[in-house]
Structure formats: C-alpha cells, structure tokens
Design goal:
TIM Barrel; 23% strand; alpha/beta; six-stranded antiparallel barrel; 383 residues; eight-stranded parallel β-sheet; 2 domains
Length: 383
C-alpha cells in the first residue's frame, strides 16, 4: 500500500469536502463569542455529527455537547463524551435506550414539553433503576416545540418529575425563527425574546423550589447577534461550525466562511442549452431550497471550480436523484470540460451532509485536484 497521501483528484465523486482552516476560524469565533457573553458553549453536533469536529469545537476537549438523536449520543459517548444534552423532545419508545446510556455513566439530559412524557420518564426510571435529568422546553416564538414560559403546565411537568424522584435540570429554548430574520438587529430582537422567555421560566421554577441550574438557548444567528445573555448559562449553536448559503443570507457569515462543499464531476455538456450535468443530485446535495426566500436565490447550491474560485452566475438549478443540472450564465466547455471537478456550496449543510459517512479534510483548495487530503473524519448517521 502506498504511503503517499491521496489528493482530491484521487477521490470518487460526489464527495463531502471539509476545509479545516475555514472550520477552525468558525470554531474560534464562536468560542470567543461564548466567552464575551459569559456563557458555556455546548455546541450542537447535529450538523457535524463528528467526534473530531466536536473536540475541536471545544478547544480539544471532550466537553459538553448537544445532540438531536440517541444514535448521536451513543456515538459521542463511545468517543469519550459524557456530558450530553438531547435537545429534541424524547418519545416514550426511546426512554429505555436513554436509560441504557445513563446506566453506562453518561450524564445524558433528555428534553420534554409534555406532562404525559414526564409521567413516562418517571415510570421508566423506577422500572430500570435510573434517574433522568430533564430539560423542560419552552416556546419562545417559533411554535415548533415547547410550552409558554408562563404556562401552568411548566409547573405541572416539574412537579411530576420532582415527585417521581427525577432531576429538573433546567430550561431549554430554541429560537429557530431567527432563520427568518434579515440583519443583525432583527436577529437580536428575537434572541432577546428567547433569553427573556427562558429566564422567566427558570425563575418560576426556582420560586417553586426547583434548583433549575441550567438555562440553555441556542441558534447560530442568536448566538452571534444577541446583545446579552443575562440569566442564561449556556448556548447551543451548531451550524456555525461549517456555515452555509442560508447562514450567509441571514448575515452570519460570508461565502468565504463556508467550510463544507460537495465535490462533483461534470458528466455531460449541453452547449445549445447553456447547461451541464454533474454527478451530485438530490441525495448528494439535498433538496433544501431555503435560500429561495432570501434576496439571493442560490438554487440547489452555488458553484466554484476545483480551485475554489467562484463560477459567477452558475447554480445547480435542478436536481434528480443522482444528477444535478448546472445553468445560469451559460456553461463554457472550455472552463468546465467533461470530467472536470466543481465544488457546490450547500444551502443547508446539515441536510447536505446527511448522506455521507465521512469528510475528506483539506486545508484550502488552492491546488485543485492536486490538493492533499490531510485526513478522513468519520461522522454518524441514523437515529
């Protein structure tokens, strides 16, 4: 076996490429932001789904993290992470699995917004001889999950848990509607409503005798543009690690900060139509069209050439399962001949990365197909 490191040109396409240097800048920026706001950073790993990225996000330590699935929790526990918050409301069918992680010594906090689920948590804990730590989710305006900070059910849930011998770990909120904002001021207003709602809920619990040590908020725009997080103990941004076209449209980053691309190959040219096809379609790129609602519609992704240089006016305008159609300003066969490589900047990197089991890690694209791959980092998928 050759000891020579592979290059990007050696890899089959489509391929998920991670620019380590860009990622490290994004990670350092958010660590500094958490320090400035005076809160603990508990990065949400649903975007990266990678132990190597998570360690780097925390400055090299296997510190506190957030996950979306118990499969992620299991994977990170196997890789040395023990302080884990499952930020998605848990279903009764998953409680046994969560209890198994607790029995292994993982400090797993689960989340609910429901008195029925709280009752199930108590019953499972008693049956299996474990104690759950529970975050109660409050709705701060997105209306996806959570209860109102002033709702009577907040006290009901906490009472069920306490009376059943479980730990009320704290309050969890997510202002996902920051993604609909345009500009820092608009994001800051939503972030303040998130902060205020979470702090209010925590204060109500404490007045009722619950310790409620954790007040947790999170979104990349909110973390970057919140004016303050007084009363909050931690934040849970995630997509900031890689950034994407949607985050660029919100104002969280520039195109030059997007650290993950999909490398694809040109498979045909249609000069009469001014288009071409690449071997990355709906599965490789996702069908996310989130930038459609923004001032700049990026189709299914913007393109650069193999050296990371923008191809102005070109987008992936349509996708089939394994095909992507490039069009826009007209495809020049002299620039993109058959077999040439392109990189697609994703609309929503969490969705785009979901089909891949690893990252091909590079430090820039300046050498194009000859760019050395410095590492392959695994990632976990599934539930």
């Amino acid at each position: 076996m050759s000891d020579v490191a592979p290059t990007l040109g050696d890899l089959p396409t489509p391929c998920l490429v991670l620019d380590r240097s860009k990622m490290e800048r994004n990670l350092a920026r958010m660590r500094a932001r958490a320090d400035a706001l005076g809160v603990r950073l508990r990065p949400h790993c649903k975007t990266a789904k990678s132990a190597e990225v998570a360690r780097r996000a925390l400055g090299g330590d296997a510190g506190p993290i957030t996950v979306s699935t118990l499969r992620e929790a299991q994977y990170f526990a196997e890789n040395g992470f023990s302080d884990i918050t499952l930020a998605v409301g848990i279903s009764p069918s998953r409680l046994n699995q969560a209890a198994g992680l607790l029995a292994r010594g993982v400090d797993l906090a689960v989340t609910t917004d429901n008195a029925v689920i709280a009752t199930e948590i108590v019953a499972t804990a008693k049956a299996l001889g474990v104690q759950f730590a529970v975050m109660i989710e409050v709705d701060v305006g997105e209306h996806r999950g959570g209860i109102e900070a002033r709702a009577a059910e907040l006290m009901e849930i906490a009472g069920i848990l306490r009376d059943g011998g479980q730990e009320v770990r704290g309050i969890l909120a997510h202002a996902g509607h920051t993604y609909g904002c345009r500009g820092a001021d608009a994001v800051a207003e939503v972030a303040e409503a998130e902060r205020a709602g979470a702090v209010l809920a925590a204060e109500r619990l404490r007045q009722a005798g619950h310790a409620c040590p954790v007040v947790s908020v999170g979104s990349t725009p909110g973390a970057l543009f919140a004016r303050n997080l007084d009363g909050v103990t931690e934040m849970r941004p995630g997509v900031y690690m890689f950034m994407d076209l949607f985050q660029s449209g919100v104002g969280c980053c520039g195109l030059e900060d997007i650290a993950v691309t999909v490398m694809a190959s040109v498979t045909n040219l249609r000069p009469n139509e001014g288009s071409a096809h690449i071997d990355a379609g709906a599965l490789a790129l996702s069908k996310d069209r989130s930038t459609q609602a923004q001032p700049r519609d990026c189709g299914f992704g913007l393109l650069t050439d193999a050296f990371g240089r923008p191809l102005p006016g070109l987008t992936v305008e349509a996708v089939h399962q394994e095909h992507g159609r490039i069009a826009g300003a007209g495809v020049d066969p002299a620039i993109l001949p058959i077999g040439s490589r392109v990189h697609v900047l994703p609309n929503h990197v969490c969705m785009t990365a979901a089909m891949y089991d690893r990252y091909a890690v590079v430090d820039g694209l300046s050498d194009g197909p000859k760019q050395p791959v410095v590492a392959f980092w695994d990632r976990v998928n599934g539930w």
